[in-house]
Design brief:
Largest sheet: none
Number of strands: 0
Strand content: under 5%
Order of helices and strands: HHHHH
Distance between the termini: 70 Å
Length: about 100
Amino acid sequence: MSDRVHESPPPGYRTQSTDVVYWAEKELFERLTAMDDRETFELIRALHRSAERLVLRGLQEQYPDATEEELDRQAAKLRLGHDAVERLVALESSNTRSTRE
């Protein structure tokens, strides 16, 4: 790897982020492209779960007295939009009422 550290990027190449050096980005991309479909799926799944946990922690900070259901609804509003969630809640509520009758 020590040879790679001194490797220069091709002319005009810019890394995806200004705080990443070329050799590290190249190594990352090589590892990502070498992954099979299952490994890729597992990585995406783990990243998605981490993002969901971060959102819920942030919402817990914003709404410390909220129930788990309220936090889940707030997270859904962030993901799907306020109007879509409110329509789903109203639909669920009307379905619940009609099954009780």
